[in-house]
Amino acid sequence: MIGLLQQIVDQFVCWIETGVMTVLNLVIVALGAMVTALCAVLPSMPSLPDMPSQFTTAASYIAWFFPVGTLVDVLAFFIAAQLLWWGVSIGLRWAKVIAA
């Protein structure tokens, strides 16, 4: 008798869990539909204006003498390495491997 009661309770718990998951999934679908509708209402982005040819020529000469792209790559690497170290050091301090 107790085993049958346990099966009934387990079945009810399963139904409740399924209902909660279904409602949660419907809420997520509704949020997605709202974001899609909002994006459909937004106006299209205008195109950027063209750069003057003199500026383009000057920028290409500057880029030949001073490689801005390489500088940006190196700076991005150092910033990423610093952020990675900060993240790792938090875990190492928590494990008491390094001092603060």
Question: How would you portray this structure in words?
Answer:
With 100 residues, the protein is an all-alpha fold. The protein folds into 2 domains: 44 residues; 38 residues. 80% of the residues lie in helices and 0% in strands. The protein is built from 3 helices and no strands. It is flat, with a radius of gyration of 29 Å.
Keywords:
100 residues, mainly alpha, 2 domains, flat
Radius of gyration: 29 Å
Number of helices: 3
Order of helices and strands: HHH
End-to-end Cα distance, whole Å, is 62 Å
How are the SSEs ordered, and which strands pair?
Layout: H1 2-41, H2 53-65, H3 68-94
Short description:
This protein has about 100 residues and is an all-alpha fold.
